[in-house]
Amino acid sequence: MAEKQPNKRGAKPLAQAEPVVQDLDSDKLAERSQELVTLGEHQSEVVDQFGDGLPWHPDHYENAIRGELRRGCEAFLRAGRYLVVARECAAHGEWQQMLERLSISKYQALRMMEAARRISALSKVADPQLLIGAARNQTHLIELLSLPEDQFTELATEGETNGLTLDGVEHMSLHELRAAIRDARADLDAKDQRITKLSDDLNKAEEKTAKAQKKWKKATPDEQSQELLTQLEQAAAQVRIAIASGSEEAGFSGAAITLMQHAEQHDLNVDEQVAGIIASLINDLRLVRDHQEVGVTVIHDRRLADWKREG
Fold first, then answer.
1. Over the stretch 29-47, which tens digit does the pLDDT of each residue have?
2. Which of the 8 DSSP states describes residue 229?
3. 47, 87 in Cβ contact below 8 A?
4. Taking the C-alpha atoms of 205, 210, 216 and 219 in order, what is their torsion angle to the nearest 10 degrees?
């Protein structure tokens, strides 16, 4: 009798898995490497410009900002400079966490950074200490930031912009400074409004012209002729208004009459000059009449000829 083989139970061994090797995209690695190099160069530039020699590290800059916030206007600007570095160099989310630990709102941080950037830009054209000294404190300095950049620079370089002076800033209360800045901005705001209105008017004129061109293309020759005749009549009406014939006050006629009366009162002779001007205008009308594209004969109204004869 054959010997019974023992029943082997349990999991069968698995075949050895082949190692999975993910192909690395060399182009993407090179691109990412270049991005990191560029980022590092940018961060180094920001640290050199705003870091005042302090190497970048989140803890170092957070402590530096906290210390500067306890001091005056100069320290306020240094804190703004450090915030610029932190904003550019911090990892994602790290800058916001830093602001929360420092109890600084994002709006306040942005204003501090703007102050630092503007003062840094001023150093290329003027001594920023004059403006900082006139501001006296960070509150006044932040108010001055509400000036447009060109006026801010003009105040620092020239000592005055639209009536606002550095000497005045130095002796103003916060309320007075705000009012003075509003007045200094008024002319600029009015100019901006004029430019905006002019732009709107030009846009409307362009739209009107486009509509007129579209209407013109759809019109028949007779309709186009009527439109051109209307334009000619309007131009003639403008000429008549400019001449204002028979009026002793308005237009060319009024100017000629006033001059002749003045000459008569003071025994002066301007007949030749006036006659020359009138002849020149008549000649201009004749040139229009005799233009090769016009070439029309002026037909005299019979009634007008009779009236002249009777007169």
1. 667 677 666 766 777 787 7
2. H
3. no
4. -120
